[in-house]
Amino acid sequence: MTTKYLLDETQMPKTWYNIQADFPEPMAPVLHPVTKEPVGPSDLEPLFPMALIEQEVSTEREIEIPEPVREVYKMWRPAPLYRAHGLEKALGTTAKIFYKYEGVSPAGSHKPNTAIPQAFYNKQEGINRLTTETGAGQWGTSLAFAGSLFDMDVNVFQVRVSYDQKPYRRAVMETYGAKCVASPSNMTEFGRKVLAENPDHTGSLGIAISEAVELAVQDPNTKYALGSVLNHVLVHQSIIGLEAMQQMEMADEWPDVIVGCTGGGSNFAGIAFPFMGHALRGGQKSRIVAVEPSACPTLTRGKFAYDYGDTAKMTPLTKMHTLGSQFTPPGFHAGGLRYHGMAPMVSHAKELGLFEATAYTQRECFEAGVLFARAEGIVPAPEANHAVKGAIEEALRCKREGTSEVILLNLCGHGHFDMAAYTSYFAGELGDYEYDDAELGMALSGLPSV
């Protein structure tokens, strides 16, 4: 019985995949936050290097991965695909479960897949300083890692609740040479404004983005880097699914169901979009399921509308599933899934009916993660627990129906820096949060009129 499917370094994809080439309908344009007119490259130049702006607007199916980026990727890519024999046995399921494991990267998650190229393209343009936000710290850790390789200064604004919950993630960022501060902070005008209104604010990704963007636009030698949501980020993550397609063929299988967790959409798109595009071009179709936290239900309860990517309303307006840019989610432990919006490409795919979405509570996701750890030996990150939960539900459905479907999930990172969350779970201290209708209505009432 084969357990892991490994590609040789020579089999690593040489191009990323861009699903925009295969969408049956084009996406809505990105709008300027002030004029509400479609943005041009010059509008984005204060934030991003031109190479990334070109990728952001590209509709080419394949985008070449630069050789220096591929060389760094070799530190952990190609990433392994595992057959979850232990989990199948524990569930007594008739399904075959596979998982693509992205926790083998130095940062412990899928995030370096985009951190490395973002640092590379910025360095090529002579930029030496990057600002960013992070929730749980997976992205901040990854950009700090990339900054250390390309000799760049990295400033990370970490959402306050995660900054307090996960001190070891912060320590890793500092080990790589980055500066990490809790957001909202006193370093920016917007941060000071938020703290003046509420000195104990737990923070949100929207606020942290505002702070990072504010620093970037003030200094021509500083650019902003985003770990999810944007088109170019999702394109970089497609290497996950491209490798998985080769590995499923090695296993002589093809997924009937693909499951990924969703916060901003990067790891979900990474695993799902190459398979989705394969089906759009006439290939075999897989059922695709996005799993999100019930406390931040962007896809299942959000509105598909134009909204700001940040709380200070400094970023361009994108059409996406959103809970409203003023939304502050409760402090649950899957910090990487605590974002008010969903990637425009993922949102567009949802509107086209290319996948379905579901939401689960925090405790049931941790329960799934513990079951996975005891069966497979890997402790998943709280974010990844959502994908595990979704895959388990699909496997149990197969058991009830007596079918033998092939299930593929993206295990997007390990939970080694999240053990405080597991400790709280075992102590019975983790709460389940539902986002109530009154709060949802209030946040959505503030959407911009476009």
Automatic annotation (TrEMBL):
<keyword id="KW-0028">Amino-acid biosynthesis</keyword>
<dbReference type="InterPro" id="IPR023026">
    <property type="entry name" value="Trp_synth_beta/beta-like"/>
</dbReference>
<keyword id="KW-0663">Pyridoxal phosphate</keyword>
<keyword id="KW-0456">Lyase</keyword>
<dbReference type="InterPro" id="IPR036052">
    <property type="entry name" value="TrpB-like_PALP_sf"/>
</dbReference>
<dbReference type="GO" id="GO:0005737">
    <property type="term" value="C:cytoplasm"/>
</dbReference>
<dbReference type="Pfam" id="PF00291">
    <property type="entry name" value="PALP"/>
</dbReference>
<keyword id="KW-0822">Tryptophan biosynthesis</keyword>
<comment type="similarity">
    <text>Belongs to the TrpB family.</text>
</comment>
<dbReference type="GO" id="GO:0030170">
    <property type="term" value="F:pyridoxal phosphate binding"/>
</dbReference>
<keyword id="KW-0057">Aromatic amino acid biosynthesis</keyword>
<dbReference type="GO" id="GO:0004834">
    <property type="term" value="F:tryptophan synthase activity"/>
</dbReference>
<feature type="domain" description="Tryptophan synthase beta chain-like PALP">
    <location>
        <begin position="76"/>
        <end position="413"/>
    </location>
</feature>
<protein>
    <recommendedName>
        <fullName>Tryptophan synthase beta chain</fullName>
        <ecNumber>4.2.1.20</ecNumber>
    </recommendedName>
</protein>
<dbReference type="InterPro" id="IPR001926">
    <property type="entry name" value="TrpB-like_PALP"/>
</dbReference>
<dbReference type="InterPro" id="IPR006653">
    <property type="entry name" value="Trp_synth_b_CS"/>
</dbReference>
<comment type="pathway">
    <text>Amino-acid biosynthesis; L-tryptophan biosynthesis; L-tryptophan from chorismate: step 5/5.</text>
</comment>
<dbReference type="InterPro" id="IPR006316">
    <property type="entry name" value="Trp_synth_b-like"/>
</dbReference>
<comment type="subunit">
    <text>Tetramer of two alpha and two beta chains.</text>
</comment>
<feature type="modified residue" description="N6-(pyridoxal phosphate)lysine">
    <location>
        <position position="111"/>
    </location>
</feature>
<comment type="function">
    <text>The beta subunit is responsible for the synthesis of L-tryptophan from indole and L-serine.</text>
</comment>
<dbReference type="GO" id="GO:0052684">
    <property type="term" value="F:L-serine hydro-lyase (adding indole, L-tryptophan-forming) activity"/>
</dbReference>
